[in-house]
Structure to design on (404 residues):
DNA sequence: TGGGACATACCGACTGGTTAGTCTGCCCCT
DNA sequence: AGGGGCAGACTAACCAGTCGGTATGTCCCA
């Protein structure tokens, strides 16, 4: 329901207008912020007009919500994959923690928007997004708790706080990570996952 | 130059208008975001009119910049105090790391604004704020490096990344910390500083 | 084969409302 | 009597969303 109204375009043209609009909006939102980006700017940059945008999307906010949906679905799916793997819990947590870093860096525009503009959503959509985020948080927390119960992680720190601790660093990536910096996404991920696992050593 | 045009008010009235405006703006910016808060709202909530606001501040952006200046000065001063203390480096880092958490929670409105609205500043002011943040970052990094050189901290993770790691969690506080939650500011600070120090164990 | 009926995809001028900032002037203290 | 401190109406710009219109395509029945 939250997905784009099929671009149809029978034969298979160059680039569906709806997707071009979403990609353009994502870039502009990340660069200038949601409120600072006008609908006119988006359609100009995408080479269409408002008529096209409002043909595919119900509102400007729908564009934002669409970005959120994409990120959430992607991250949740990947987390589930790693958490369900057949490996010791410390390995599963390490893999999941590192993966979310890589995925975040690879979609840095989306995640910048995600964390900066969350509070721009209408109460209704905000509630939905929060619910999905909570599911994600809880899945991650379950990994930490499992390790604490089996004794491979230190138990004298609340699991919730540990999760927020790690996601703080993930959240923060958009602020400091530069593509032309000295570290590859995978290197950053390995370092951050390493720090987390060491912080959890009993 | 970046400070408020003296409220004068010779004798010492109830509450200087300039400070009331700044406090009101801070609250509203934190609640609704900078762009979503109109100047009219601010002056209404402060019980004055636009004439008063533009008498004391050059622009809406000046209000934001003023909030930034306050936070930056406060945090820098406190960091310097802890970093200069006469104690082993692991103790100084722990104290500094915990203190910034407590200070952040105690000024959660300011820091929410700080991290959310940074990119709303004009290039000129943005440059200035960045420079001050960098000084702060470097002071903190020096502590990590000192410990790495003297061997009390593991050296196989870049010091810059460690600093961003910790400040990620600080940055993130505004997202999850609730006053009516189970943890006091000091408890959160102790946990986060503990995690950092354990992550750095050789 | 042709043509009417209808739908999809998009255009772009327009509207109603909001906004930051200005300006003139009053009031009160010194 | 002069100026700081403020009021409040005003302006010029901008913005999300609307709406009537057009061009192109598809389906169906004769």
């Amino acid at each position: 329901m939250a997905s784009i109204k099929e671009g149809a375009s029978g034969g298979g043209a160059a680039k569906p207008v709806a997707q071009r609009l979403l990609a353009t909006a994502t870039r502009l939102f990340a660069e200038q912020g949601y409120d600072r980006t006008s609908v006119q700017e988006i359609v100009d940059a995408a080479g269409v007009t408002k008529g096209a945008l409002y043909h595919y999307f119900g509102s400007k906010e729908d564009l934002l919500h669409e970005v959120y949906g994409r990120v959430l679905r992607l991250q949740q799916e990947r987390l589930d994959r790693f958490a369900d793997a057949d490996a010791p819990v410390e390995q599963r947590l390490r893999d999941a923690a590192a993966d979310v870093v890589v995925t975040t860096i690879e979609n840095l525009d989306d995640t910048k928007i995600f964390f900066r503009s969350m509070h721009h959503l209408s109460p209704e959509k905000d509630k939905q997004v929060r619910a999905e985020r909570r599911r994600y948080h809880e899945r991650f927390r379950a990994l930490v708790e499992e390790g604490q119960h089996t004794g491979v992680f230190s138990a004298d720190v609340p699991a919730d706080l540990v999760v927020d601790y790690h996601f703080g660093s993930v959240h923060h990536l958009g602020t400091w990570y530069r593509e032309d910096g000295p570290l590859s996404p995978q290197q950053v991920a390995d370092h951050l996952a390493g720090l987390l696992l060491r912080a959890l050593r009993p």
About this structure: The CA atoms of residues 115 and 171 of chain A lie 7 Å apart. Confidence is low (pLDDT under 50) at residues 1-13 of chain A. Chain A is about 70% helix and 0% strand.
